[in-house]
Design goal:
Radius of gyration of chain A: 21 Å
Oligomer: heterodimer
Number of strands of chain A: 14
Number of domains of chain A: 2
Largest sheet of chain B: 4 strands, antiparallel
Helix content of chain B: 25-40%
Largest interface: A-B, 21 and 23 residues
Order of helices and strands of chain A: HEHHEHHEHEEHEEHHEHHEHHEHEEEHE
Strand order of the largest sheet of chain B: 2-3-1-4
Radius of gyration of chain B: 13 Å
Shape of chain A: globular
Order of helices and strands of chain B: EHEEHEH
Distance between the termini of chain A: 50 Å
Number of helices of chain A: 15
Distance between the termini of chain B: 20 Å
CATH architecture of the largest domain in chain A: Alpha-Beta Barrel
CATH superfamily of chain B: ACT domain
CATH architecture of chain B: 2-Layer Sandwich
Number of strands of chain B: 4
CATH class of the largest domain in chain A: Alpha Beta
CATH topology of chain B: Alpha-Beta Plaits
CATH class of chain B: Alpha Beta
């Protein structure tokens, strides 16, 4: 074994914040459906607490064995709207059940308070969506997501119209806790079924009964590798990112394998991600700045991000036999020290972030907007972002947090991994008439690509 | 099955002795040691056979960490798999 390799790994973990961001156990609840909601909830609780009983303990054991921190242990479940369709009743009961199960097994988050409505509403969907604000305000660990569009089916504009109001209500109901409710609510286009990352994780109907997915992290490692390289051409930058991503992903694969053996659950996927945290030295924005931008948000940001995102995937794909989830660089504003700084000094705008989402993973993520932003404007932000995802055959999402009672310049403080951030300026000219039309944006043509 | 023990910190008398004594106490066979002193920073890497060790891996990690704290060094024990998977194709 090479001494330099050993020291490199130790430095990555000790000084550059290399970690496994999450091991997420996906659990199917399809066999818990019952026409009686309290029986259904009981079965949900029993299944989650028996499948995930040892999840946290096994995670901690792996942390010790490899000396690599596993920041989060999480659970994703079958979209609850499907269970609500069978049982009827108030879906909030499911949210409370998930919360209780999450607390029992000691996970950080449980995702799957979800409805998939990209082509229209089935039984249970409308009830679930309407209950999201209450569900998120009465729980701490439950995360919610709604898929409102896809490349194959277009965008459900009735759902988009609803979600603007739902995001705002969720903020209002949790205004006393820095509007944290909307930090746990994601609106997707092309949502992946095997995503281990919150708040958008759910266990898709096509997934096996129980599966283990891993999300890696390591912006600090990539930035440090680029800093060491100094003045080199952009080809070399791409190469360095690729090699670093390979190493990071190998570690994810190793941890996933170990956890799946320990728990007796099949290994699902490694999500090839660069997920930042608010900690110093763990920022995706700082990688872009290391590439040669004064501040993230400057012209050139989209190009740098496109290179970064692509190189991460190229390196990662070679390192893992099973890849999936969101896979790519994340740009959540409040969770990234560099993005927070760029937003504070006005170098980073929502419009620039929107452009960035066309070339990287996910979308407008963890962006704090003024509390008086109208529901129509939020719906229109969702529609724009979904259109980018639909046309480019990629996942996009919106997770904006209307800061109730606050204006541009004020800040929200969530704490922990969710971080903090300034309220960003939103274009308030009205899209009300467009949003009020409702209906469905047809699926885009898949040829004549220009 | 092997573990990699890394010790990083200020050089002083008895580092190797104390770390290897702890290994011996748990029936761990040290198979290779590399060490270097750059200025006054000491870096030692030990390869140790842990197939017949008498404690649980996580206890060894804790004990080494405690020893490191006591001596003002950072000592980490990691399973060899992590290095093999990260640095070999």
């Amino acid at each position: 074994m090479n001494v330099n390799d050993i020291l490199e790994t130790v430095t990555m973990i000790q000084d550059e914040n290399l970690d496994i961001r999450t091991i997420t156990m996906g659990i199917s609840l399809l066999d818990c459906c019952d026409s009686d909601i309290s029986r259904s909830c009981r079965r949900v609780y029993d299944k989650i607490t028996s499948k995930a009983r040892d999840l946290v303990k096994s995670g901690e054991e792996i942390e010790k064995r490899y000396g690599i921190p596993i920041i989060n242990k999480r659970i994703s479940v079958t979209p609850i709207a499907i269970l609500a369709a069978a049982s009827g009743g108030d879906p909030v009961e499911y949210a409370l059940t998930l919360e209780k199960a999450a607390q029992t097994v000691g996970v950080n988050f449980i995702g799957g308070y979800t409805a998939l409505v990209h082509k229209g509403f089935a039984a249970g969907d409308l009830e679930l969506i309407r209950s999201i604000p209450e569900a998120l305000s009465r729980t701490e660990h439950v995360c919610s997501s709604v898929n409102i569009g896809s490349t194959k089916s277009g965008i459900n504009m009735d759902a988009v119209r609803m979600m603007g109001g739902i995001v705002k209500q969720t903020s209002e109901l949790t205004a006393d806790r820095d509007c944290i409710g909307s930090a746990k609510l994601v609106v997707f286009c092309n949502a992946p079924e095997d995503n281990p990352f919150m708040a958008g994780a759910f266990h898709g109907p096509g997934e096996p009964d129980c599966v283990l997915n891993v999300g890696v992290s390591g912006p600090g490692v990539v930035r440090a590798a680029l800093a060491k390289a100094g003045d080199c051409s952009i080809d070399e930058v791409a190469d360095i990112v690729k090699k670093t991503a390979f190493k990071i992903t190998r570690m994810g694969q190793l941890v996933g394998d170990a956890a799946s053996k320990m728990l007796g659950v099949p290994f699902g996927i490694v999500d090839l991600s660069l997920a930042p945290t608010p900690a110093v030295g763990d920022s995706v924005a700082h990688i872009l700045e290391e590439m040669g931008l004064e501040t993230c948000g400057a012209h050139g940001t989209t190009a740098c991000l496109a290179l970064l995102n692509d190189a991460v995937k190229k390196g990662g794909v070679m390192a893992s036999s099973r890849v999936g989830g969101l896979s790519g660089a994340f740009i959540p504003v409040t969770e990234d020290a560099g993005m927070i700084h760029a937003a504070r000094i006005g170098a980073l705008s929502i419009e620039k972030l929107e452009a960035m989402t066309a070339v990287c993973s996910v979308g407008l993520d963890m962006i704090v907007i003024p509390g008086n932003t109208s529901a129509e404007v939020i719906s229109a932000i969702i529609a724009d972002e979904a259109a980018i995802g639909m046309v480019n055959s990629k996942t996009t999402a919106v997770r904006v947090i209307p800061a109730i009672g606050k204006q541009v310049g004020d800040e929200l403080e969530f704490g922990g991994l969710l971080g903090s951030g300034p309220v960003m300026k939103v274009n308030t000219t009205s899209p009300a008439k467009f949003i009020a039309r409702g209906g469905h944006i047809p699926a885009p043509l898949q040829s004549l690509k220009n | 099955m092997k573990a990699v023990i890394t010790v990083i910190g200020r050089d002083m008398v008895g580092i190797l002795a104390k770390v290897s004594a702890l290994c011996a106490q748990h029936n761990i066979n040290v198979t290779d040691v590399t060490q270097s002193v750059m200025q006054d920073l000491f870096a030692m890497i030990m390869l140790a056979d842990i197939s017949s060790m008498t404690v649980h891996f996580s206890e060894l990690v804790d004990e080494m960490e405690a020893l490191g704290k006591e001596m003002g060094l950072s000592i980490h024990v990691m399973h060899e798999d992590i290095f093999n998977s990260m640095h070999r194709i």
